[in-house]
């Protein structure tokens, strides 16, 4: 499965329900991803034999009507775009000079369905943001323990009869994550295998009852209100085992 296929599957979860009507006409999200990939590939600059530098700051311009529809998705769309840019850079062994920034902008000079991407290299501060992805909804993990279960007292509540009220917890110490079963009735699985307690790697899957929970690390830098979302440089190696950027 290619990068665009992965993006479309993630986006499908994000746009279900009320967002289902958003993309019946006009600019499609997959066209934005294609434009970002083209911009990265076109602007790739060979600095040395082992270093190919690509832009990390992107402005995606589109018609006012398309911008209104895309903006209705909120952070979910930007998260998916950032993730795609990171994955594409990693697959091509490209490197960034700083954190990835993606912003959407309305441009009255563009017709409905058209998209243009402007880019540049900008240095920036980076922060790692762990999240749990449940059916397209993302729950940020705070430092300490995040309880998952069916009960209202859980931090992440599952509408799943196969889940116990306090089923499992994810522990995050600022650099590493662990999952621990809390003595649940039906048990917890990690990447298809029963688990009592284990280190969580990025993109690993926790299964509770019928619920599929994906642990992700969105390498973003927190900005001020209204600032675009950012992600970490592809060259940075995360302290959690198994998470490597494009420069490694």
From TrEMBL:
Keywords of the record: Phosphoprotein
Q: Which InterPro entries match?
A: Cell_Proc_Reg/RNA_Proc, FHA_dom, FhaA_N, FhaA_N_sf, SMAD_FHA_dom_sf
Protein name, as recorded: FhaA domain-containing protein
Signal peptide annotation: none
Q: Where is this region: Disordered?
A: 224-248
Q: Which residues form a coiled coil?
A: none
Origin superkingdom: Bacteria
Give residue ranges for domain FHA: 146-195
Phosphoprotein is among the record's keywords: yes
The UniProt entry, under Pfam families, shows: FHA (PF00498), FhaA_N (PF12401)
